[in-house]
Every structure is written in C-alpha cells, then in structure tokens.
Design goal:
This protein is α+β, with helices and mostly antiparallel strands and 153 residues long. The chain is 31% helix and 49% strand. Strands 1-7-6-5-4-3-2 form a 7-stranded antiparallel beta sheet. The protein is globular, with a radius of gyration of 16 Å.
Length: 153
C-alpha cells in the first residue's frame, strides 16, 4: 500500500431531478461546456487545452470565511450510453467523477447525477460539501434553462 492510498479517501452524493423535456434536450445542454459558466455557480472560466484535444481547463471561484480564491483544474466530459461522465482533476490529488444518466419518464426526463470524490482526508468534507451545493444548483439551473427554452412547466 502506497502513501497516496493511506491519505486519500472517498465520498460522494446523488441528485435526481425531473425535467419536463426530452432526454435529447438534456444531453444537448450538458454536452456544451461553455454553458456551465452560467449553470454552475462556481465556474467562472472554461478553456480548451490546445495540446490535449477533449481536455478542458476550468476555473472556479470559492469563498471560505470571507477569503475568495480561484481554483483551476483539468476536466474531461465523455459521452457514454445513456449519459455523460465528467472527470475533474485538481491539486492536491483530488479526483471528481460525475456520472449523469437520464431516461424518458412521464413526458420528460429523469436526470440522475452520481458523484464520487477522492481527496486527501483533510479536504474531503469541504470538497464534498462544496460540490454537493454547486451541483444541486447546477441541476436546478439546467431544469430552469430547459423549461424556459421549451415553454414547458
């Protein structure tokens, strides 16, 4: 067992939301990373990595006890059957895996996000708490944006 496995631990959360639009509309919105700037409350910038096709550099803004700072990390979104997988890698040794899965249900889409976070033990609580709140807002904002575009209720 290496030192890394001794100091890293895992946590996570799930979110479910019903959106009264077709699954294709959900996929189209979540597949456009530049949309995340207005949908995810922490994200303030997204840049493509010129030397690594498919990789992104994302900048988040965090506030802890009145201190505001930016965190920049690498991310990748991978289409999979029935959804998208999003990976984010941040200093120090933080890996976030977001699995978005959806299926048609009662005239709309049931969207489930399952998030697993691996981080150093002292950072896991803050990382999970911050991500859980940001991703709850993300899903609510996705729903609001899609409902407004479609005119659904």
């Amino acid at each position: 067992m290496g030192l890394r496995s001794l100091v890293l631990t895992q946590g996570g959360f799930d979110h479910d939301i019903f959106i009264p639009v077709a699954p294709e509309a959900v996929l189209a919105l979540l597949s456009r990373p530049q949309e995340w700037i207005r949908l995810q409350p922490l994200v303030i910038a997204i840049d493509e990595e010129p030397r690594a096709p498919g990789m992104l550099r994302i900048t988040d803004r965090h506030t802890i006890g009145g201190l505001t700072f930016q965190a920049r990390y690498r991310a990748q979104v991978v289409p999979v059957a029935g959804g998208l997988d999003g990976h984010a890698w941040s200093f120090p040794f933080i890996h976030v895996l977001n699995r978005y899965r959806w299926h048609a249900q009662d005239g709309g889409t049931l969207l489930r996000e399952t998030t697993t976070i691996e981080a150093p033990r002292p950072l896991l609580g803050f990382t999970v708490k911050t991500a859980r709140a940001a991703h709850a807002s993300l899903l609510a904002n996705v729903k609001q944006a899609l409902v407004e575009r479609s005119g659904a209720r």
